């Protein structure tokens, strides 16, 4: 009901002002000091701090100065404590309690930008969480109705006298119409927001519960947009993989050339094998392989001679190490294998004859054929 305002009720305050000489008005005057006290009692610390800054010199008592110093120390700590307390609540998803903590903090520190920003972030997260749950609930209801309706329709057909099933079918059909309408709205909003997966899910359910031309048209648009996005995503993924493949290939090429320049033929071999896996059709790979093979052959030729010199000088362990390093480059090199086996047998003999007269090492054949003949002669003697 509209409240009527009587004319005399408006004129009465004016009359009191005119009659002020008869009865002097008592005007309550609040000093800055009193306002500071009130702000402290209300825990409005930022307001109290501003009021203290306005105090004239005559009213700056020792108590007021102590309060001002306390506020300067406390404000930063208080802000941090509020943020930490609210953050702990947010980690437990106690959204409303966290918002209440922010609100209490903003009463004390209304101009705190960190508190304002944190509260706004928490509010958005809370509303997003609510929206997510409401959307999930709506989709779950739609799926449930879509699954139940054909079952009850079949039950009503098989047993027409089942009154309870008939009533439940009627309720499901009515609920299906309402939920389908809500799902259509949700699908439309999701389509506008480019949330295409949600749009397709919501509109598909809506069309299943209540087929309409409008819903079908929106569903077609959502499916087409989703297909376009997926195609673009596949192209982007392919381009990203292609770029990563090219970068990896360039890296392997660089590592190969660096290894060749430094003489690390094992590393060069590994990098070349990596290139063969990443870009097997590269026309430069056969040339690089020939370059590597030539360098390995040269290394083995020089290493064989170095190992023979060490062997004849009695440095048998060093010779074995030299030849073994070469075997890493050519694991199936027959001459290297024969040299290593012969030198290892000599080392075993030397270890077994410690304290006996020095054993003269077996001679090293000049090539692999002579090595094989020497091995055959040893076998016949045994």
TrEMBL record:
Keywords: TPR repeat. It comes from the Bacteria. The keyword Cell division does not apply. Residues 364-382 have a biased composition (Acidic residues). InterPro entries: TPR-like_helical_dom_sf (IPR011990), TPR_rpt (IPR019734). Signal peptide: none annotated. TPR repeats lie at residues 300-333. Residues 354-382 are annotated as: Disordered. This is Tetratricopeptide repeat protein. It comes from Ectothiorhodospira haloalkaliphila.
């Amino acid at each position: 009901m509209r409240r009527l305002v009587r004319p005399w009720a408006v004129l009465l305050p004016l009359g009191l002002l005119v009659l002020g000489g008869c009865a002097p008005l008592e005007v309550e005057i609040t000093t800055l000091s009193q306002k500071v006290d009130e702000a402290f009692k209300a825990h409005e610390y930022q307001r109290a701090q501003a009021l203290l800054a306005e105090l004239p010199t005559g009213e700056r008592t020792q108590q007021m100065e102590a309060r001002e110093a306390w506020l300067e120390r406390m404000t930063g700590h208080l802000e941090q404590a509020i943020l930490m307390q609210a953050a702990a609540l947010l980690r437990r998803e106690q959204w409303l309690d966290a918002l209440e903590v922010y609100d209490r903090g903003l009463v004390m520190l209304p101009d705190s930008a960190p508190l304002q920003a944190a509260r706004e972030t928490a509010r958005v997260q809370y509303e997003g969480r609510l929206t997510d749950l409401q959307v999930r609930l709506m989709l779950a209801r739609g799926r449930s109705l879509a699954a139940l309706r054909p079952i009850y329709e079949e039950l009503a057909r098989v047993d027409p006298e089942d009154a309870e099933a008939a009533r439940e079918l009627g309720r499901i059909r009515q609920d299906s119409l309402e939920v389908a309408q809500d799902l259509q709205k949700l699908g439309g909003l999701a389509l506008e927001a480019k949330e295409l997966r949600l749009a397709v899910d919501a509109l598909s359910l809506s069309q299943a519960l209540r087929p309409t031309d409008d819903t079908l048209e929106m569903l077609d648009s959502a499916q087409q947009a989703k297909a376009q996005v997926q195609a673009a995503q596949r192209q982007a993924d392919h381009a990203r993989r292609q770029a990563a493949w090219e970068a990896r290939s360039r890296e392997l090429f660089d590592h190969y050339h660096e290894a060749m320049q430094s003489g690390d033929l094992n590393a060069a071999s590994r990098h070349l094998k990596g290139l063969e896996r990443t870009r097997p059709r590269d026309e430069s790979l056969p040339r690089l392989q020939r370059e590597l093979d030539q360098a390995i052959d040269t290394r083995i030729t020089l290493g064989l001679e170095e190992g023979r010199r060490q062997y004849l000088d009695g440095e048998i362990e060093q010779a074995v190490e030299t030849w073994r390093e070469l075997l890493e480059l050519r694991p199936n090199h027959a001459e290297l294998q024969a040299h290593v086996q012969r030198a290892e047998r000599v080392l075993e003999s030397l270890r077994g004859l410690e304290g006996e007269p020095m054993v003269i090492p077996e001679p090293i054949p000049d090539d692999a054929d002579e090595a094989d003949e020497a091995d055959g002669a040893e076998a016949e003697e045994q």
